[in-house]
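Thread title: Can someone regenerate the structure for this chain?

I was given the following input by a collaborator and told the matching structure tokens would be attached. They weren't. Posting the sequence so someone can regenerate them.
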Amino acid sequence: MKFLDEKIIALRNEMREQEQHELAQQEAALKKEQEPEQASEQEEQDLQKVNIYRDYIIIEDEKVEVIGQSLLDGKMSIRMPNLFSVMSTELASLKYPSERRPNLIYTDESSTINLAFNLTPHRLVEEGVAAFQENMIDILEQAQPSADWLDTDVLTIDEKTIGFLEIITPAIDGDIFNLMFFVSIEELALIGTFNCMEDDLETWRPIARAMMESLQFASNRRNGGAVL
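Best answer:
Regenerated them for you:
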């Protein structure tokens, strides 16, 4: 009888240990699942620090005015720091040698921080934006196999579907941070691009995201209101 009791106790202990082991595994698996989500939430919180709708923002300890800028003959508008001017034709030819360079390019005084808009002739309807984004991701993965991918998503901004990606690509004079976004304008594909040196990533990435999220579209203002 004593032997049987000992076997029962041993079996109970073994079952308890097994339960604790399984519980520990479940907790570890749950923690692992939550870690990327928590990291993503923290990253999103970091990117939400820039309020582009204020009269000014702080960039590298300096107060910089924020303005509303109409783009592409009033088809859209954006909020941006008042540090940019339209890039000259000569400089655009040097920085974008292809004749298919963007229609409109803004740059800062150093010409290292750029914001460009290219309304392409490619047909793109609202429902095709997500697929267009996926195609662009595939193209970039093939063209830039050593690139560092930071984020991709599809958002609704001012009632329009916008796909975007954030990627760091290698270059001769240093790695470059790129934010690209895609939207249908009058059923044509608009590609927007922000880029800066990776060294300026911490400062400009949240500003670039805030600028993109401030986009407004004239097609949504036909029933009243004005483009900023």
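DSSP finds four helices and eleven strands in the chain.
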